[in-house]
Structures are given as structure tokens and as C-alpha cells.
Design brief:
The complex is a heterodimer of chains A (about 90) and B (about 160). Chain A is an alpha+beta fold and about 90 residues long. Chain A has 3 helices and 6 strands; from the N terminus they run E-E-H-E-H-H-E-E-E. In chain A, strands 1, 2, 3, 4, 5 and 6 form a 6-stranded mixed β-sheet that branches. With about 160 residues, chain B is an alpha+beta fold. Chain B has a 4-stranded mixed β-sheet, with helices on both faces. The chains are: A alpha+beta (about 90), B alpha+beta (about 160).
């Protein structure tokens, strides 16, 4: 469940790999009603144009509650959404 | 079945010794150590390899690979120890061992686990060097090696 900060609902966005390097461990964005993964990607890309290519890449998968989710997954109300770049393996 | 993430350098000798101490008379032990290179495939110097990981999915991926090896091969014991964080050239990134009554199963189990680890383990690797940093993309030859191991019979 997204938390309320300053009267607004907030979704935490977690990053890994090269996205973590570009954007840090985590960012917070206002929770928007009805938003999907696909729309969240577009919103984040507009906020962080330097990382837009990765944020919009289909190779970068979205993850909620430790499960990979699709582009139409509703992220509104989720506590945290993570973006995982392609794995480089061990 | 022992699977562990390590922030500290891995001693291959210590891991082998620990692994052997837990065996029960198996006739074959196979080990593999993946070591951080001092140069990229293009010949540029590497100061360190950095493995970014996920707080839960990384351990889960290693556990899944170990469990699949146990299921698939007639092995008695296995061990996976994997570094995370910064790894210096020459240090072991991953140590894998398997024991079995006969050698073939142990060889195959270690080969399988390494092919899975190279593609399915949840890590993001970056090479840092004097010329800058580069995130490592999935490699075609690793994906091809992973594809050698079928996961299910073909439907009839």
C-alpha cells in the first residue's frame, strides 16, 4: 500500500544496476490513480531524461513484491515498484 | 545444499575443505572457481568488478539454481558461494562444488549450475577501470550455453 506524505500518496521506485547508478537507490513519486507500469515509465522518463532510454526499454523489467509484472500492471496504490535492467549474470 | 552470498573474498581452499568435511563417502568431487579478470575482452585494464544485487531476488535465484541441480543430477551435495559488491582482479567471484558417487553427475551438475548462474543469477555487473566504468550486458555465448539445458520434454 502506498504511504501518505504531506497529504499525498507516495510510491517508492527502486532501481538496480545502471539505473541505480544514474538515479540512486530509490526515488519517490506521487501515486497517480489508475497508473500502469507503462505510464509510470513514461512519467519517470520525463522526470529523468538522462535515464529515459533505459526506463523505456522493454529489456528493463518492472518488479512488484518480488515478482516481475507486465506493462499493464496497475502500480497505483503499490508501496514500491522496482526497475530491473537485463541481468549480467554471475 | 549450501548456498551463500559473500561480501568478503572467497578462499577456494577453505570452501573445498568445508565442502569435503560434510561428505559421506562419495567418490567424486568437482569444483569450479570463476575469477575476476584483470582485463576486459577488449584488452582494457580492469581495476575492479562490481556486482550489484537485489536484497531478496538474488539469493532466491541462487537457491533456485541449486535446487534445480539437485533435482536434475544424481549428486549427493553441492555448494555455491557468490561474491557481491566490489571484487578485485584475481579474486574468486563464484565457487561451485558438487559431489556424487560417480564423476559424470558431478561434472554435469557443476557445468549446469555455472551456465545457469551466468544467465539467471540476479546480478548486475560493472567493470571499473582507468578508462571509466562499463555495465556488462547479457552475452550471446552465455545465453547459448544456458540453452543447452532443456527444461522440459518437448510436447508430443
Amino acid at each position: 500500500m502506498s504511504r501518505v506524505t504531506g497529504g499525498r500518496r507516495i510510491v517508492r521506485i527502486g532501481f538496480f544496476g545502471r539505473l541505480r547508478e544514474a538515479l540512486g537507490d530509490e526515488r519517490e513519486v506521487p501515486d497517480e490513480r489508475g497508473e500502469t507500469v507503462a505510464r509510470l515509465r513514461v512519467r519517470l522518463a520525463a522526470l529523468h531524461p538522462g535515464a529515459a532510454r533505459d526506463l523505456l526499454s522493454p529489456g528493463v523489467r518492472a518488479c512488484v513484491a518480488d515478482a516481475i509484472v507486465g506493462e499493464d500492471f496497475p502500480v497505483a496504490g503499490q508501496e514500491r515498484v522496482e526497475f530491473l535492467p537485463p541481468l549480467s549474470g554471475g | 545444499m549450501s548456498v551463500r552470498l559473500s561480501d568478503e573474498p572467497i578462499s577456494d581452499e577453505h570452501e573445498l575443505s568445508q565442502f569435503r568435511s560434510g561428505l559421506e563417502g562419495e567418490g567424486a568431487i568437482v569444483t569450479f572457481a570463476g575469477v575476476a579478470r584483470s582485463r576486459t575482452p577488449g584488452g582494457e585494464a580492469v581495476d575492479r568488478l562490481v556486482l550489484d544485487h537485489h536484497p531478496r531476488l538474488t539469493s532466491r535465484s541462487l537457491d533456485d539454481i541449486a535446487a534445480a541441480a539437485r533435482e536434475r543430477f544424481d549428486i549427493a551435495a553441492l555448494r555455491i558461494v557468490h561474491r557481491r559488491g566490489a571484487v578485485a582482479p584475481g579474486e574468486t567471484i563464484v565457487f561451485v562444488a558438487a559431489s556424487a558417487t560417480h564423476r559424470r553427475a558431478a561434472f554435469e551438475a557443476v557445468d549446469y549450475m555455472m551456465d545457469r548462474l551466468k544467465t539467471d543469477a540476479v546480478f548486475w555487473k560493472r567493470e571499473d577501470g582507468p578508462e571509466g566504468s562499463t555495465w556488462i550486458e547479457p552475452r550471446e555465448d552465455d545465453l547459448a550455453a544456458r540453452a543447452r539445458w532443456s527444461e522440459a520434454p518437448c510436447p508430443e
